[in-house]
Amino acid sequence: MLKIVVDSWGKSSDGVIFGYTEYMGFYDECVTTRSDNYTIAGKYCRVTLTCVVLLLLMMMLAATVLDVTIQCNKNTAIVKGGLRYLLPFSAYTNLGRMFHLITTSSPTNIACLHGMRVLSMTWVIYSHQISATMYGGGYNWENVAEKTQNFLGQIILNGYPSVDSFFFLSGLLVASGFLRQLKAGKFNIFIFYLHRFIRLVPPIALVAGLNATVARFFVNGPLAGLWDLFPELCSKTWWKDILLINNIKGLVEDGDCFGQTWYLAVDFQLYLAAPLFILPLYWSKTVGMLWLYLVTVASVIIPAAIIYADDLAPTTLLFPEHGMDYIWEVYYAPWCRAGPWLAGIWLAYIMYKLGNRQVKIDPILVMTGWTIATLMGMLVVFGMWSYNVFPREAQYDIMTQVAYGGMHRLIWGTCLAWIVFACHYGYGGMVNSFLGHPIWQPLSRLTYCMYLVVLHLQYAIAANTRIPYYFSHLNKVVETVGAIAVAFPVAVLLSLLVEAPVLGLEKLILTPDRSRTSKKNKNKSLAHQINNEKVTDIPLAEQYPVNCEKILDIPLAEQQQSSQQGQCITQLSTAFNSPSFTQNATPPEKLMVVAGGLGLVVKTNDSQMDTANLISDHEEADTRVILHCISSSAKHIVVVLLLVNYHRMQCKTLWMKAGTSKKPKYIPIHEIHKSLAFEQQTLEELLPYHAITECDTVSCFMGHSKRSAWTVFLENHNLLQDLGTIGTISDEGLRKAEQFICKVYKVPHDM
After folding, report:
1. Which helix (H) or strand (E) holds 578?
2. Which of 39, 146, 238, 611 is placed for a possible disulfide with 208 were both Cys, Cβ 3.0 to 4.6 Å?
3. What's this model's pTM, rounded to 2 decimal places?
């Protein structure tokens, strides 16, 4: 029988190049096949989607083998051409990224978001578990209403703020990324929208296809008939989920494949409107904040007005009147769900303006913030307790109806905003230690795929039961843990097959190939060429900024007159040991100095130059550049921030190059020196001031930034004149330094 079955399968035929890809097989041979005892009969099936999944699996396997081969052989030459488009499917790399733990904090890594995201997803799954296990009946279904009238019951029955948490996170992350791109000059409105669409749709498409085809084969038992409704519904309504329009009344009244993806539709529609709210903030602080304030107020007034006008419940309650009207008019409406999303935008803008600055908050204000956030959050979750039981213990009045219905989502988002702000800026305490623990990060990266697969898995597990479920809170917790345990590997597989590869391909296609672009760019950076081992081919005369002679205020003709004139190129590179590096990498009219390791070895292309004074054991590259500035003649031009030694360099103008290779900035050191108008002794004291108030190896004063210590320095800079001088610091110098620190903290200095 097996030979006959295989023979009847559809196989590749002629005409593929002309578009013939219908492999129908031999229908009659398939359906007439029988086993010897007639217990197994053939059935004709079209499994196009299964072929897609198999293709993705084979691509993942091939990419993984290729990736491991590259890692073992350290040979990147084999991924030239089309093979580089296969690597995004590598399970080796994608799993590494998925389970990578980031243990350092940065402005772009808000650690507490990972824990917040995972706990919110767990809350969603826990709330869904009751409907998943009770839709086929239960031993004590009639007692469920009674058992949910307690504290834990309200966490289930009013678990809707868990979804608002994701709206808040979406607004925060979208606005943060948007503002960073605007600041860097990299924002592209087309890429902005395209990224979101291809980020969301491919995983939805694959899961919808599997639910519409093969999902029916995973359930059997007395409740299998109820489960069969899901594949049938998905086969008819899958396109609504892919187009992200399944929250529009009139389109999904006949059913929906993914009941939970209404959130993605609402979030995507808010995403479409995001530039309208974020761009004004970037262009004008006053206008942008006023506009965002008006929109935030509208996000409260609109749902309150709809609830009042149609006499709807303040939220989704147990057995509510006009329950479906509330769902369509309020719950699925993006203009009614915008409150927490806007709270995220507010927080993103505040953090964007603060940047890397240290935030000092009075302890009383910190305690007040945490108290208010905790109380208001509990009111949002448990404020409907009296109205969210059956039978209902009280009837809400109009004030409660309108106030809670209009404000509770914005209040929830504001509470989360305080938690994130406090945790990120050092006022989170144990909460930040818990939410910001790196263990949350892998689960956090999988929440999207988990969201897509877990609800159907919950219903599939419940439909496979042979006996009714007994409702108790302990059972619900155990079932939730089980659902997460089953959904986790499925979410990992979905991410490996679709989510991670699509994001990798997007980056590969939409981000220019730097190695190819650099071949056309005459202003290639030396560091980039060194990393690519092409040092001897570098035309350094073409590497300087356009109009560099104007920037340095020196005619180019003068630079070419003498080998002692020109721009000093200082690069730290592991390639400096190359015998031909300093001889071939620099044209004769340029002077190059290279220091490697800790600067204990210094090389230069000038054989007459004494490098003894350039040796340094400091880790900072700035120190080595400074040493060269001091030792160079007046004709050497070095672009470096060196206020203290500006007078020794005898430069008319001195610039520091900063920024990025695509968007460089030139800081006029001579102008800063002129505006400060410090005496040389005061300039000398800038070095110890910088060293003790925060540098690479010294942290800032507790509760005091450089800015707050600067006012003390302006009035008491003489207290630091002995600090950092050659030799051991005297007792008097130490006493003065201690006195300076005491003045920063505004405490008396008693010796």
Report:
1. none
2. 238
3. 0.66
